[in-house]
Amino acid sequence: MPTQTVWITGASSGIGEALAARFARDGTNLVLSARRENELKRVADRCTDAGLDRDQILILPLDVTDWDALPGAVQTVLDTFGTIDLLVNNAGVSQRSLCKDTDMAVYRKLMDVDVMGQIALTKAVLPHMLERRDGHIAVTASVAGKVGVPQRTGYCAAKHAVMGFFDALRAEVEDDGIHVSTIVPGFIRTDISRNALAADGKAFGKVDDDIAGGMDVDECAEVVFNALKARKREIPVGKGKEMAALWVKRIAPEVLFKLTKARN
Ligand code: NAI
């Protein structure tokens, strides 16, 4: 089998970084994208430490909200590696603020990064995959894309939106040979709460208890890596009670609504 090319956004930290390190051990070509080039270089070093050749790594800084730059970025990847076999739309930002306090600009930013950015990059990559009648597109959604929880009205709205978009996209393109996976993490120990937006748009700046008690990020990456290899359509990953919320929402929504209110 020819060497595969995997493009990961949000690769400068957390789940994206851990996933890059896991794919590095698999010998795939890697495209590492996020906004901070110096952090991407650090992740690239981690990938070479894991055994990947340096010329199998493309550091491609980008901001997923800069739609105009995305077609050029796709071309750069194709010029470098020839194909894009798997795109992992993982870049994202969370929220820690009550609706009543939250600036509208915060809602717009959550939608721009967590929804529109994923759609824009996916649309830029799709023609290449449709032409080859082969490819795999994943998105890091969230349990917050299935369940509404306090302090995250905008984040839950955004993650529900990407779940809907990628489930619908799958129905459109699966018969064209393109696989679509939605990754549904619970609490994973990363900088997600530290980087989350507070009511005024500033970083929340703290690791909250949910995240501190979450699954180890490399353990998460191992689960996601194996599920992506198996081309699973939906990939729940987590170890805490939040994972039970996925099925409680389906079979007993009234119970779930009481439980989430109790978290307020
Ligand atoms: P993180 O804060 O460590 O990583 C977020 C990544 O996205 C970073 O690389 C950041 O630079 C990048 N990013 C943010 N805005 C960007 C933009 N405009 N353009 C390009 N890159 C941008 O947090 P984590 O946990 O690794 O988050 C990764 C994904 O996992 C996110 O989509 C998040 O919503 C999702 N997630 C995380 C959970 C957790 O408990 N850690 C739970 C459920 C979903």
Automatic annotation (TrEMBL):
GO cellular component, one term: membrane
Domain Ketoreductase residues, every copy: 4-191
Top-level taxon in the UniProt lineage: Bacteria
PROSITE patterns membership: ADH_SHORT
Keyword annotations: Oxidoreductase
Gene Ontology MF term list: oxidoreductase activity
Protein family (similarity comment): Belongs to the short-chain dehydrogenases/reductases (SDR) family.
Protein's UniProt name: SDR family oxidoreductase
Organism from which the protein derives: Marinobacter nanhaiticus D15-8W
